[in-house]
Each structure stands twice: as structure tokens, then as C-alpha cells.
Amino acid sequence: MSEPRTIAEDGDGVVILDQTRLPAQTAFVRLTTLDEAAQAIRDMRVRGAPLIGATAAYGVALALREGVPLAKAIDVLAATRPTAVNLRWALERMRRVLAESAVAERRERACDEARAIAREDEEANAAIGRNGLPLLQIVEHRPVRVMTHCNAGWLATVAHGTALAPVYAARAAGDDVFVWVSETRPRNQGLLTAWELRHANIPHALIADNAAGLLIMRGEVDLVIVGADRIAGNGDVANKVGTYLKALAANVHGVPFYVAAPLSTIDFDCPEGAAIPIEERDAAELGEKVSRGDTPVVNPAFDITPADLITGIITEQGILPPTGLAALRR
């Protein structure tokens, strides 16, 4: 590969960019089996809801190549991460398409469908960038100061990103933009955002998570854009833990708060945020000293931002009101 990419086909396998080694090292891992694909998702070698979905789709294709039954492959992959709905969405799509195919054709059809899911994610995220660009252009002063949380750039997707897609679009349009990058404890995905922005030559600064409220209060943030791991039917959003606090601060100080996500992230079967399962991660993520001590640890990976704190949801079909998603249900 001539440049870093999140996922690409390689013969009878797929190659992923191992995000657990970033930003210190750019390394690639080749996946050839169901277990390898499942482990890559579980261990966060791939992360970000859209990329998890695409990887799971390829995982089904790899499973069929090695002779694993379709039902088992879907069950194994579905158990890796409970919160990101794109995982379930991609697996249900693979199940539906392959159920309509003759058994002898399933291997080839699985590869075609995984390829289609990846291509559609790339196209959707490019559209998110175009649709979100006007939000940055209406800000009167320059540079436009955007705050984000976690990593929702191209590393979290097949291409372009979600929350960062409008930032990249603004840069391509020649607009001055500056990004406040929240470090995002305990996994520090903000370092991945900083890594992306540095390589794109976009001005930015890494901040401690708890500094976000102060910056918003002082008027140093023009808008907040975050990604999403699942959006409930009523517009409540699950995203990396810490998102809710930024939404509260933005609401108090009149700063627009946007969520950027493809429509595949909307879970119409989930009525509200309270019904979204929140993944509990291992205590070791908080650090070796903490995990080896006697202090009990609770480590939720996500939180819920209520719809009434969200200005709009930037999708490939435009900017939608969070409380009006029901009209999209097919």
C-alpha cells in the first residue's frame, strides 16, 4: 500500500490498518479467517461504527471461504461489540442477501456484498462532508473553530470520516478551520484525530477532556461535531463516553452541537437512548496501576446524548432534525 487505508482487499484476505498501534506506528494486519476478523473488531484494531460494519461484512466473506456456516459467522461477529449498530446492520444485510443466494454462490456473493457495503460507506461519508460544509461556512470569522470528541475521521470509516468529513471538505474548499481535539480517555482516540489532522495539515490542538467546558464557556468554540455509534429512533445518540458532557456545555452556552453519521447508524428498532446497550470495557484500559489495585472500576465505553441537546444530524441525505427521524423509516 502506498498510503494508509483502513481496509482493503488482498487476494483471499483483507488488510486493515491496525489502529491500536497508532499514532506511534503505522502497521497493517492481514485478516484471513472469521476469528481474526472478530478479534480485530473486539480488540479495537478497527474502530468506528462504519468501519466496524464494513469489517464485519468482510468477516462473513472470510468465514464462508473457510467453510464456516453463515449462522455461526454472524453470531460470532455480532458478539464482538454491543453498542455500534452498524455492526448489526451490516450483518443483517449480509444474512438477508446470502439467504437469497444458492449455497454454491454464497462465497462470491458475500465478497460482492462486503465490497458494496464498503463502497457505499465511502460515498455516504463524502456526502456527509458536502452537507456539513455550509455549517462551517456560515460562521462569520476565520478560522472556524470546531470541537470534536473521540475519532470520527477517515480512520473510523472506510473513507472521509463522519464528524471530520465537513472539516476536510472545508479545507478542500480553501476555508480556514481549526479543530479542538478532545483527548478522549481512557483509549485516547483523540490522538488518532490529531494524527489525521497533522497529516492533512489542518491546524488543531489536543485538549484534556475536562477542558472542553471552559473553552465553550469562553466563546472559543463555534460548533461541536461528533460521530455516533448508534442513533435511536427518537434521535437520542450513543457515542464515546464524554460526548454528553460536551452537549450539555454547548447547550448552556448556545453553541450548535451536531452529530454526523450515515443513515445506517440509525436504529429504528431502538425507541430511545435508554434502550441502547452500553458496552462495559475492561478495567485495564484505565491503566495498569488502576487495574491492579483494590479500587473497583466502572468503565462504560459510551454515553447517551438526548435528542433535545442536538442541533441536527448530518447525514448523506442532508441535515436532519433529531426528533424527525421516524419519517425516514422504510
Descriptors for this entry?
330 residues; Rossmann fold; 2 domains; 36% helix; Four Helix Bundle (Hemerythrin (Met), subunit A); globular; 7-stranded mixed sheet
Explain how this protein is built.
- The protein has 330 residues and is of the alpha/beta class.
- It has 2 domains: 115 residues, Four Helix Bundle (Hemerythrin (Met), subunit A) (Up-down Bundle), CATH 1.20.120; 198 residues, Translation initiation factor eif-2b, domain 2 (Rossmann fold, 3-Layer(aba) Sandwich).
- Helix content is 36%, strand content 17%.
- The chain is built from 10 helices and 14 strands.
- It has a 7-stranded mixed β-sheet. A 4-stranded mixed β-sheet has the order 11-8-9-12, covered by helices on one side.
- A hairpin with a 2-residue loop joins strand 13 and strand 14.
- The model has no long low-confidence stretch (mean pLDDT 93).
Please report the total strand number as a whole number.
14
Order of strands in the sheet with most strands: 6-5-4-7-10-13-14
Radius of gyration: 19 Å
Please name the fourth-level CATH homologous superfamily of the largest domain: Translation initiation factor eif-2b, domain 2
Which percent range fits the helix content? Answer: 25-40%
Give the H and E element order.
EEEHHHHHEHEHEHEEEHEEHEEE
CATH class of the largest domain: Alpha Beta
* Main β sheet profile: 7 strands, mixed
CATH topology description of the largest domain: Rossmann fold
Cα separation of the termini: 39 Å
Uncertain regions spanning at least 5 consecutive residues = none
Mean pLDDT: 93
How does CATH name the architecture of the largest domain?
A: 3-Layer(aba) Sandwich
Percent of sequence in beta strands: 15-25%
- Count of DSSP-assigned helices: 10
Q: How many domain regions?
A: 2
SS content category: alpha/beta
Principal-axis shape: globular
